[in-house]
Amino acid sequence: MTILSQIESKIVSLQDAAELVSNWKADGQKVVFTNGCFDVLHYGHVCYLAEAKELGDKLIVGLNSDASVRRLKGETRPINGQKERATLLAALSFIDAIVIFEEDTPENLIKNISPDFLVKGGDYTFETIVGADFVSSYGGKVITIPLVKNFSSSSIIKRL
């Protein structure tokens, strides 16, 4: 197996992610979930994702599909396609799985994997985090992580 195929093997379907999570939980591991567009991967993303991983044993990232990003960010986005964005995320050693989702929110994904931790950036509040009520309903934790100042895909794209 090539290095690239090993990396790409972390990009899984919703069904495969649910099976992975079930196996991880059966082994007593804690699962962390976060999501986003990750259009132009940058230092702020890496810091955020690394901190999210430190909350548990396994980190799953929900990645907005290209169509979902266009609906959320406009017709000029994404800059990088979903396969490329997913592969870049998968190359980060501390990410265990990536699931591309077509919907505007990861609600269905969250309900299918029932993570122990649901994580979003500090620009969100409990009330604005999709899935927060669901995760809290079974004792999961909803956590926000402060953003790294001066790093956002939008600001990087604007500078370019």
Short description:
The protein has 160 residues and is α/β, with parallel strands linked by helices.
Folded structure, characterized:
This protein has 160 residues and is α/β, with parallel strands linked by helices. Helices cover 42% and strands 18% of the residues. It has eight helices and five strands; from the N terminus they run ααβαβααβαβαβα. Strands 3-2-1-4-5 form a five-stranded parallel β-sheet. β4 (117-121), α7 and β5 (141-145) form a beta-alpha-beta unit. The longest helix has 13 residues, at 14-26. The protein is globular. The model has no long low-confidence stretch (mean pLDDT 94).
**Roughly what percent helix?**
40-55%
Number of strands: 5
Give the integer mean of the pLDDT values.
94
Query: Rg from C-alpha positions?
Result: 15 Å
Distance between the termini: 37 Å
The share of residues in extended strands comes to: 15-25%
Structural class by secondary-structure content: alpha/beta
Features of the shown structure:
single chain, 160 residues, alpha/beta, 8 helices, 42% helix
Per-chain topology:
Layout: H1 3-8, H2 14-26, E1 31-36, H3 43-53, E2 58-64, H4 66-73, H5 82-90, E3 97-101, H6 107-113, E4 117-121, H7 132-137, E5 141-145, H8 153-159
Parallel strand pairs: 1-2, 1-4, 2-3, 4-5
